[in-house]
């Protein structure tokens, strides 16, 4: 696993955005997997800046969604489809015709989940999947003890996750859905390149368990150890519990080996 330690979130966003831009130079119609939340925002902002500056051509790129609430209308302002439209698609000038996402309003959620896996495969698979990580090591909505071979499926949100997400629903937990569709860990591992971004000391334990801990369902992100091309980008706070931090700084200093691959 490649671990790149950066000074701050902005630097991490710039680094990953440049990797995406380089991927698009080699494969203009690349399928980019994106995640919601505050952590990846510096990536999207940096990539949008490159597009405006003519440093990245995203006209043929496609975007794939990681997860979605069940039961929220697609046009609800807090559906992840709406969030990604505001934070990713519109700033990049990408239309919804280039967007792939699961149908959280389907009557048969199991069938909708299977259909999304099939759609990703039919699109040629995800070329680069951007991931965040929870303080408990979850990726997507694959909470601890999720199967490491799991496919896209419905998951029940933990009470803590609903409490955390209530801030997006006027602080009213009653408005937060109880279920989501999420790409499974097995689905996520099919992307050609996995890039996990983590910032802040509150993510340090999860990052250490992911990178240096055992492969274990209790830390779903540890499944990245199984992937042939996984990169973890962390700021100093998130790297603070890594025993091999100095090794990573020495190995991936200045220009990380994974850029341009």
The helix-strand sequence is EHEHEEHEHEEHEHEHEH
Q: Unreliable stretches, pLDDT < 50, 5 or more residues? A: none
Q: At the first level of CATH, what is the class?
A: Alpha Beta
Report on the biggest sheet. 7 strands, parallel
Shape: globular
CATH fold-level assignment: Rossmann fold
Question: N- to C-terminal separation?
Answer: 14 Å
The percent of residues in helical segments reads 25-40%
Topology:
Blueprint: E1 2-6, H1 9-26, E2 31-34, H2 41-52, E3 62-65, E4 67-69, H3 80-92, E5 99-100, H4 109-122, E6 128-131, E7 153-156, H5 159-165, E8 179-182, H6 185-188, E9 193-198, H7 204-212, E10 230-235, H8 245-251
Parallel strand pairs: 1-10, 2-3, 2-6, 3-5, 6-9, 9-10
Antiparallel strand pairs: 4-8, 7-8
What does this protein structure show overall?
The chain has 261 residues and is α/β, with parallel strands linked by helices. The protein has one domain: 3-Layer(aba) Sandwich (Rossmann fold). Helix content is 32%, strand content 16%. It contains eight helices and ten strands. The strands form two sheets. It has a seven-stranded parallel sheet, sandwiched between helices. Helix 7 links the parallel strand 9 (193-198) and strand 10 (230-235). Helix 1 crosses helix 2 (41-52). The longest helix is centred in the first third of the chain and has 18 residues, at 9-26. The radius of gyration is 17 Å and the shape is globular. The model has no long low-confidence stretch (mean pLDDT 94). It catalyses: alpha-D-glucosamine 6-phosphate + H2O = beta-D-fructose 6-phosphate + NH4(+). Belongs to the glucosamine/galactosamine-6-phosphate isomerase family. NagB subfamily.
């Amino acid at each position: 696993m490649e671990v790149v330690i950066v000074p701050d979130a902005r630097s991490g966003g710039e680094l990953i955005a440049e990797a995406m831009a380089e991927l698009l130079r080699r494969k203009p119609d690349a399928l980019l997997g994106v995640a919601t939340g505050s952590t990846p925002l510096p990536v999207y902002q940096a990539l949008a800046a490159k597009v405006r500056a003519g440093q990245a051509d995203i006209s043929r790129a496609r975007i794939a969604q990681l997860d979605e609430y069940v039961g929220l209308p697609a046009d609800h302002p807090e559906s992840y489809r709406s969030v990604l439209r505001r934070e990713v698609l519109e700033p990049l000038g990408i239309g919804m015709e280039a967007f792939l996402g699961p149908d959280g309003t389907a009557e048969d959620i199991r069938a909708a989940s299977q259909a999304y896996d099939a759609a990703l495969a039919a699109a040629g698979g995800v070329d680069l999947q951007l991931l965040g990580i929870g303080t408990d090591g979850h990726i997507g909505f694959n909470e601890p003890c999720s199967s490491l071979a799991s496919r896209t499926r419905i998951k029940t949100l933990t009470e803590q996750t609903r409490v955390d997400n209530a801030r997006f629903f006027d602080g009213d937990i009653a408005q937060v859905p109880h279920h989501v569709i999420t790409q499974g860990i097995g689905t996520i591992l099919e992307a050609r390149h996995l890039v996990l971004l983590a910032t802040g000391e509150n993510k340090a334990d999860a990052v250490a368990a992911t990178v240096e801990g055992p492969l274990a369902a209790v830390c779903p992100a540890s499944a990245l150890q199984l992937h042939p091309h996984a990169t973890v980008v962390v700021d100093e706070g998130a790297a603070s519990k890594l025993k091999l931090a100095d090794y990573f700084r020495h190995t991936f200093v200045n220009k990380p080996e994974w850029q341009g691959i």
